[in-house]
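Fold this complex.
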Amino acid sequence: MEKMILMMLISLSALAVKAQDTENKLNGTLKIEIDGLSCPFCAYGLEKNLSKVEGVQTIKIDVENAFVLLTIFEGMGVNEATIRKNIKDAGFTPRSITKENDG
Amino acid sequence: MGRLYFLALLVLVIISCKEEKKEWVFEGKIELPENSRPLALAKTGDELWFSDPENFRLLKIDFHGNVLDSITGVKRPMNIDFDKGKLYTPEFLTDTIWVFENGKNIPLPIKAQPNAPAGISVKGDTIAIADFYNHRVILQIGSKVTFIGKVGHDKGQLYYPTDVKIKEDKIYVADAYNHRVQIFNFSNKLLNIIGEKDGFNVTSAIALNSNYIAATDQENSRVLIYDLKGALLQILETNINYPTDVLLNQDRLYISNFKKNSISIYRNR
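Structure:
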């Protein structure tokens, strides 16, 4: 009986973690504003790093206005922390990540 | 008396030689096709190739800006080089070096893996690659590979190198985010540092000839001219807008204006 309760608790906590994970995932089209994006070497480096993120469908870098537009494959959310890490790995600090109106 | 005339003539010649101080003067611009973003330049005879990473292409133009040839579908072509009839293109997103000859683009075998190759210089079987994310230069001579520099801000260390040039037995590196040019020998020994106190903000590209070193100050829209020992000779600012590359050819200097869709030409006179 104790074993059964323990198993149920483990399953419930696993489900809770999964639900939380899904909640934190971003999808659709994301606009990321980044300081210092005017340099083409850095901008394309950022593009290279973001292309490694699983679930990213397209990347549009706007060097002139210093932002990136990411579209995420439908049904494949991307964790915000993963996006932020890949941006940091490219040598940048993201200012804001906002969801664009896909309509 | 004859001797006196000869001496006077000699003195005049020496004085006139000393007074002859050449300067780089803006001569004109090559306007490029609409929406072009020229990042880097390479000269082939009477024509120029420029890389246009924003549009995933390279264009060959004449000096009026007319397009003569193109290579498309290159995933961010960066600082290119031309050697012995071949155009060398580092493809930033795929870590590939392409060699274009007789209308065909083939990958160059490299013995070390770059991460975002930003620039290349080729002299026969000696190849140097600015390895942007590994903060080093890959130097391949025949089948032997050595590395120049490592990540850091101290002397001899590199931080996001974007361009490289081979001249005789030296490697000149645009140490972009250390805001300077560093010169090494082929054994990774630092020989000289140029521009450290000249206010660079991203030293993105360099060019060399037998008299001068030119370096871009990308974020300040300037090009600085040095002698081969590293003494600053001149600062160019006229008609330069976000320079990402320079090319020295005889008495002319070509500057790519990345954000102005043009190439500025300066003349040494």
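Residues 2-24 of chain A form the longest helix (23 residues).
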